[in-house]
## 1
Amino acid sequence: MASVTSLTDLVSKQLTSALSATRPETSADPLLRRSDRADFQANGILALAKKAKANPRDLATEVVSHITTGDVIKDVEVSGPGFLNITIADRAVLENLAARYADGTGRLGVPLAENPGITVIDYAQPNVAKEMHVGHLRSAVIGDALRGMLDFTGEKTIGRHHIGDWGTQFGMLIQYLMEHPGELAPPSEVDGDQAMSNLNRIYKASRAVFDADEAFKERARKRVVALQSGDKETLELWQQFVDESKVYFNSVFDKLDMEIRDDEIVGESAYNEGMPETARLLEEMGVAERSEGALVVFFDDIRGKDDKPVPLIVQKADGGFGYAASDLTAIRNRVFDLHADTLLYVVDVRQSLHFKMVFETARRAGWLNDDVTAHHIGFGTVLGADGKPFKTREGETVRLKDLLDEAVQRAAEVVREKAKDLTEEEIQERAAQVGIGAVKYADLSTSPTRDYKFDLDQMVSLNGDTSVYLQYAYARIRSILRKAGDVRPAAHPELELHEAERALGLHLDAFGDTVFEAAAEYAPHKLTAYLYQLASLYTTFYDKCPVLKAESPEQVENRLFLCDLTARTLTKGMSLLGIRTPERL
């Protein structure tokens, strides 16, 4: 792969060299940023002037004298108290973009990270025998996007779907199935809807018997003990629930256009055998202690309303284990067996205190340290139009499948209205891509920790910061390239660029830097912001710079080149977020 040094880095190197030549005894970061007055503005001079006890403007003028203009930097001027406004040469812009365009790997010249690591991402965590609802949406969408961005940087990612497949409710379900054999069909004989219908029916029926029949309730409790003890018949029936649920899970994830690998579905049950050892290790190391019969970990800074310490319960007084033991055992597995150096947990922000205690416990045990870190990527709530948690009109939690189906249906209306040469089959295909893309983008364009309103009308709008706007920009470019016929895109560095061409070109060059920044900060919304601005800059370019009717054949080729590179960047960026870009809309 031929990696390309970004214009930002090229300018930064020249400025660093000039700063060193001006004041070799000290140094300062150029702190480049985009500016309305120039392509870049450098404001590191102020820090350098403070160190050197010099006048900032005088020092800035001296730094400029050490900058060579020409190949990359066209012009530098001192402004304000000592800022440097820097203009990039048109030739440098086009040559850098041409190098990106020539990269045949599809990476647009973006290099891989020098020292990539291994990141385990815990996301998309549905519960066995329970229907997925709107609350499961954000974990899946955010986790998948983080994985796409990290993979692109060269990080090795391992998915972990910590599904709820263990606990007391399974005693009730298994006992009911034992007394009503044949209620669950083999997974190969049902689709997702049938699987969920069966599971819902059995759950409601078993719950009704459990609440009304004390003898059944006692048998169900004993069945929990049999499950935890590894009883063969009990485990076989438990596996039926897991398999049936996976059929349903996969049907929903398919709608989300998201691949969930079976070997990465590692539920709570996978850590069952390791939890006693986790408890033993923590107690032996003195990290956990016995309190009122339970094994707990205390924290000086975590107290309840009565100012009493709030402990993390590793093992209950009756010997049972809860979420803390499961999560701590999972950390041991991910660090020592999977050799991860970063653990990400894409889980509701309301679990922040739990993860704070779990991570601190793991640090005290030495399982986490400066080289092996864990991060809770907490996300906010999906709200309805009324600003309250999203519910149906009846006040029930919205089923995720229904929500996705409605998004596709609404997108079909938009696509059909705009479609000129699409068949009904093509409209439905694109409606799925547009509708699901709209749901994902609305989620990802919001900072994960913030709540956001689920407004389908806005999500599928052709105007504003929506995935549909980006998808139509991509489709428009593909249409232009088809109309160009035999005229091929080609960069012409000798041409002078229009202001709109320069703005678009400079933004295209920043793609790699943006992805690396978004990945490092676990912030997909920074990539969506970049892509929206890219589509907006392209719209301005398209309005101000005729493409096929440009003044010369060279200008036509050059503008087609800018169009094609914009399309490639849009589709690459959207794909990292798990969103498709249809060729025609």
Note: The longest helix spans residues 232-255.
## 2
Amino acid sequence: MMSTQANTIQLTLAQALIRHLANQYIEIDGEVVRLCGGGFAIFGHGNVTCLGEALYNHKDELPIYRGQNEQSMGFAAAAYAKQKLRQRFMFCTASAGPGTSNLLTSAALAHANRLPVLMLCGDTFQTRLPDPVLQQMEHFGDPTFGVNDAFKAVSRYWDRITHPAQIIQSLPNAIRTMLDPADCGPAFIGLPQDVQGWVHDYPIEFFEKKIHRIRRSHADPQEISEAVTLLKSAKRPIIIAGGGVQYSGAVKALTKFAEAHKIPVVETIAGRANLLNDHPLNIGPIGVTGSDSANAVAAEADVILAVGTRLQDFTTGSWTVFDKKAQIISINVGRHDAHKHRSLPVVGDAKTSLNAVHNELSEYKAPDDWANKAQQYRKTWDAYVANNVSYGNKPNSYAQVIGVVNSLCDKRDRIIAAAGGLPAEITANWRTLDVGTVDVEFGYSCMGYEIAGGWGAKIAQSEKEPNQDTIVFTGDGSYLMMNSDIYSSVLTGQKLIIIVLDNGGFAVINKLQNGTGNVSFNNLIADSNIKSEPFAVDFEAHARSMGAEAETVANPAELAEAFKRAKSANKTYVICMQVDPYEGWTNQGHAWWEVGTPHISDSENITTAHVNIEAGRKQQRKGV
């Protein structure tokens, strides 16, 4: 309703928040689209009566997807944002109490991966008149302190609205944070149940259509010049291409730069699918889950140009993959990332910074023998991968499954994986068919992301590429942890192809356990505290019970035929196969990784493993 004051409108806080959100747009490649793609919602007493009422009145502009679990809603929203290259986002709304606290893990995932997710969560009454209320977490010495405060650790922006006028400042600030290339991440807004329904005379300008654009930060010219000077001195340079290359839209700039200066390129886990598999300068994935080829050139490189990567330990081999004398140039829009480990920082957008360095680098080219050596390393690695993914008289393995799917999928299909052994196996063995088609969530390495993330990614994919498939790789452990969005995908018509690989438990952690001298304990189902004979879950029947089509195959040859049937299906299709928990792992390409091991033990195997692991530390860079 219109207020008695000119140029204002009287609305509840919830109504104003949703109306403002519905009027935010973004320009992407010359096209203006709504900034928020909609939301995932589970309603409860803390958000249904007020926020739910507001969302109902805007359900056409902001489509709502009913989640099955708040944590999986957050995963789906994060995967949507990743597929959209952080240019669009979705919100999650949860009720006060356990509904909201279920979102903590997905907020942490979004924070670690620098992904925009807006969380609109119920909170206790601002008046405190009915305290303590249902699901309230009481702190006797601080009545303002509650579950929602836990999100401060996993949010880039956090606020609790205590008066309806505050949203005029808070919501735009949350949106600006989510769209900022350097500060990007989840935003949390706590909405007390009573304040959601309070009214305020909002200025009409607050609801005007606004078109956002992602700003590009230009690096300081002095930083560019210093980077150029260092690169010109390089005899054995490499480029590390991270996920920030894709978020910046810098894939073409990176390719042009590498080709012009003949510099070998290696990719991080988040940077997989920057270059196609057959590009002559693509030397492979680097790090703990990398390739012998990439790790070999990294060990010999004298200058390392790191572009759009936060240089986490799986990329750097806990800082052992580089020669200690190698110098790092770090192009990153985030100041914190650009300065890591004594790097020469270039704080700016990846695309504009690469172009600026390229322009000043002029005719510089890396020596021919260096590029030739890197390419020879890659040929050797390609031969290993070809044998690794082959099948015949070998136990069923992740690598074989990856090879089958890789050979049959369309080049624009998107693959999803997270946690367990699959991220390492995909990073090492997947051969990129097209740019930006791989989502291996390893920033937070979060079990349960796979199917929920696949659902969110498919929602995003359907907006532009409705005929392409989203292919989910998951182990039995992650499947058992979170699978209910099979049902969500069927209900919403967002088809997934889900490959469930059953190795009888948490096999990759069992592998780590055994590799550090420990006996198998509490990872494989057979080695846990059970009161019956171990048995395989009927994943096929379970998936069918949620409306999906499903089948079980015995080997990679049968998988190939099943995958063809899944491609032609018109709804979510689950393919299940058992793989060996001990044999068939990719056993090459691994850099050293620092894990905590007992310095003393009654077990000789554990003591010996500790000594052997510590021997790898001699190459570790001691930086900041």
Note: The chain has a mean pLDDT of 96.
